[in-house]
Design goal:
Blueprint lengths: L1 H14 L8 E6 L1 H13 L9 H6 L5 E6 L22 E6 L9 H11 L9 E3 L20 E3 L31 E8 L11 H6 L2 E7 L1 H4 L12 H16 L4
Parallel strand pairs: 1-2, 2-3, 3-6
Antiparallel strand pairs: 4-5, 6-7
Length: about 250
């Protein structure tokens, strides 16, 4: 990866030497965002022991920036911009849609999310297979029936009456995160507008018509959430929300 990128940058400078006055922006969505963050961290690394042709070529540009969208975690420790006065004007941002599961997609998290998808909602009784390892201690198999028979999941009994029943409380343990997100994390949160929101449209189109608010968050804060909305990972939604933010900035809106 290092050599092809360095070669391409040399070609761009050779085609137009004036490009040395430009800033280099490395960007990507999803896995591409993870690669962009790794390349940026490699370029701005302060380690003198690392000799890289990519670092040498990138040094011809005025500044180097990195902006990612919906990128998964990539490193044990967070990758941040080095504290160096030379990088004061360099930007390193990771835009994250609230609800995007890929932004927390390390191995324990994905496994836990799949188990959560397959678990019935609280207060509902459902038929569950005895072969599920996590439900073995809680499921009875009486009458000498085959182990492949189905029974009611007693973990989530149905309420007796709709009026007197107390809503069940479900607690899903968040797995310990092993990987961290790169850059300064910018959370994009959708805001519904009842006056302009169209009716009878699919979920993705409803999201596209939402407003958006922005909040700076930490990697540590993301370790305590469970997100599982695939729609929030779509690049089309990221692009739409960035357009809304840019338009609001031009119009002076908060």
């Amino acid at each position: 990866m290092i050599s092809p990128v360095a070669t391409r940058l040399r070609e761009l400078i050779a085609e137009n030497p004036y490009r040395c006055n430009y800033s280099l922006l490395i960007t990507g969505h999803s896995a591409g965002g993870a690669v962009a963050a790794l390349l940026y961290s490699h370029i701005v690394s302060m380690s003198r022991e690392v000799n890289s042709e990519l670092k040498d070529v990138a040094g011809f540009f005025k500044r180097v920036h990195c902006v990612t969208f919906g990128a998964p975690p990539v490193s044990i420790l967070p990758l941040l911009k080095p504290d160096d006065p030379k990088l004061k004007g360099s930007l390193f941002f990771s835009f994250v849609n609230e609800g995007d599961p890929i932004t927390r997609a390390d191995k324990p998290y994905v496994r836990s999310l799949l188990e959560l998808y397959s678990t019935p909602a609280p207060g509902q009784s459902c038929l569950t297979s005895l072969t599920h390892p996590k439900l073995q201690p809680f499921i009875s198999n009486s009458g000498g029936k085959s182990s492949s028979s189905l029974t009611i999941n007693r973990l989530r009994p149905a309420p007796k009456t709709a009026e007197s029943a107390t809503p069940p409380v479900a607690i899903w343990p968040v797995p310990v995160a092993t990987l961290s997100n790169a850059g300064r994390i910018v959370l994009l949160r959708g805001v519904q507008n009842p006056e302009t929101r169209p009716k009878k449209k699919k979920q993705i189109f409803e999201r596209m018509d939402e407003g958006v608010v922005v909040q700076m968050i930490s990697d540590q804060l993301l370790r305590n959430v469970v997100w599982g909305d695939p729609v929030c990972h779509m690049m089309k939604l990221y692009a739409r929300r960035i357009d809304v933010l840019a338009m609001n900035a031009v119009k002076g809106r908060s």
